[in-house]
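FIELD: query
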Amino acid sequence: MSAPHPVQEFFSIGEVCQLTDLKPHVLRYWVYQRREIELIMLVKHLLYTEKYTIEGARQRIEQYRRSGELKPEARRALATQTVKDLRAELKAILAVLEGSASPNAGAR
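FIELD: result
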Protein backbone atom coordinates (compact mmCIF):
# COMPACT_ATOMS: atom_id res chain seq x y z
CA MET A 1 0.00 0.00 0.00
CA SER A 2 1.49 3.34 -0.99
CA ALA A 3 1.55 6.39 1.27
CA PRO A 4 -1.16 8.97 0.56
CA HIS A 5 -0.11 12.07 -1.31
CA PRO A 6 0.15 15.16 0.88
CA VAL A 7 -2.77 17.53 0.49
CA GLN A 8 -1.64 20.83 -0.94
CA GLU A 9 -2.81 23.68 1.29
CA PHE A 10 -1.79 26.69 -0.81
CA PHE A 11 -1.74 27.30 -4.55
CA SER A 12 -0.12 29.96 -6.72
CA ILE A 13 -2.34 31.93 -9.08
CA GLY A 14 -0.78 29.98 -11.98
CA GLU A 15 -1.70 26.67 -10.37
CA VAL A 16 -5.25 27.90 -9.72
CA CYS A 17 -5.50 28.98 -13.36
CA GLN A 18 -4.51 25.48 -14.47
CA LEU A 19 -6.84 23.75 -12.01
CA THR A 20 -9.87 25.91 -12.84
CA ASP A 21 -9.14 26.71 -16.48
CA LEU A 22 -9.63 30.41 -15.69
CA LYS A 23 -7.46 33.31 -16.82
CA PRO A 24 -5.39 35.22 -14.22
CA HIS A 25 -7.35 38.44 -14.76
CA VAL A 26 -10.53 36.63 -13.73
CA LEU A 27 -8.96 35.37 -10.52
CA ARG A 28 -7.48 38.77 -9.69
CA TYR A 29 -10.98 40.21 -9.40
CA TRP A 30 -12.10 37.57 -6.97
CA VAL A 31 -13.62 38.64 -3.64
CA TYR A 32 -11.43 37.66 -0.73
CA GLN A 33 -12.59 36.67 2.74
CA ARG A 34 -11.08 38.16 5.89
CA ARG A 35 -9.13 34.98 6.65
CA GLU A 36 -7.49 35.19 3.22
CA ILE A 37 -6.55 38.83 3.80
CA GLU A 38 -5.10 37.84 7.17
CA LEU A 39 -3.00 35.14 5.52
CA ILE A 40 -1.82 37.56 2.83
CA MET A 41 -0.80 40.04 5.54
CA LEU A 42 1.09 37.28 7.36
CA VAL A 43 2.98 36.43 4.18
CA LYS A 44 3.74 40.13 3.64
CA HIS A 45 4.94 40.45 7.24
CA LEU A 46 7.21 37.42 6.96
CA LEU A 47 8.69 38.59 3.64
CA TYR A 48 9.10 42.32 4.21
CA THR A 49 9.37 42.77 7.99
CA GLU A 50 10.95 39.51 9.11
CA LYS A 51 12.97 39.26 5.84
CA TYR A 52 12.14 35.60 5.17
CA THR A 53 12.71 34.20 1.71
CA ILE A 54 9.59 32.96 -0.06
CA GLU A 55 10.51 29.38 0.79
CA GLY A 56 11.30 30.37 4.38
CA ALA A 57 7.92 32.10 4.70
CA ARG A 58 6.20 29.02 3.27
CA GLN A 59 7.96 26.83 5.85
CA ARG A 60 7.12 29.22 8.68
CA ILE A 61 3.45 29.26 7.69
CA GLU A 62 3.49 25.46 7.61
CA GLN A 63 4.97 25.47 11.15
CA TYR A 64 2.20 27.81 12.30
CA ARG A 65 -0.39 25.56 10.66
CA ARG A 66 0.97 22.40 12.32
CA SER A 67 1.13 24.07 15.74
CA GLY A 68 -2.36 25.53 15.46
CA GLU A 69 -1.00 29.07 15.51
CA LEU A 70 -1.73 30.00 11.89
CA LYS A 71 -5.00 31.83 12.54
CA PRO A 72 -3.72 33.83 15.55
CA GLU A 73 -0.50 34.76 13.74
CA ALA A 74 -2.38 35.79 10.59
CA ARG A 75 -4.78 37.92 12.66
CA ARG A 76 -1.85 39.48 14.49
CA ALA A 77 -0.19 40.38 11.17
CA LEU A 78 -3.37 42.07 9.92
CA ALA A 79 -3.81 43.93 13.22
CA THR A 80 -0.19 45.11 13.13
CA GLN A 81 -0.60 46.46 9.60
CA THR A 82 -3.88 48.15 10.55
CA VAL A 83 -2.18 49.89 13.47
CA LYS A 84 0.69 51.02 11.22
CA ASP A 85 -1.79 52.41 8.67
CA LEU A 86 -3.79 54.20 11.36
CA ARG A 87 -0.63 55.67 12.86
CA ALA A 88 0.43 57.01 9.46
CA GLU A 89 -3.03 58.51 8.88
CA LEU A 90 -3.01 60.14 12.31
CA LYS A 91 0.43 61.63 11.68
CA ALA A 92 -0.83 63.05 8.38
CA ILE A 93 -3.88 64.55 10.12
CA LEU A 94 -1.70 66.01 12.85
CA ALA A 95 0.60 67.56 10.25
CA VAL A 96 -2.40 69.21 8.59
CA LEU A 97 -3.71 70.47 11.92
CA GLU A 98 -0.30 71.88 12.80
CA GLY A 99 -0.10 73.54 9.39
CA SER A 100 3.03 71.70 8.29
CA ALA A 101 1.34 69.77 5.47
CA SER A 102 -1.36 70.39 2.91
CA PRO A 103 -4.63 68.42 3.28
CA ASN A 104 -3.84 66.37 0.13
CA ALA A 105 -0.27 65.45 1.16
CA GLY A 106 -1.34 62.13 2.68
CA ALA A 107 -3.86 61.25 0.00
CA ARG A 108 -3.37 58.00 -1.85
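FIELD: remark
The chain has a mean pLDDT of 87.
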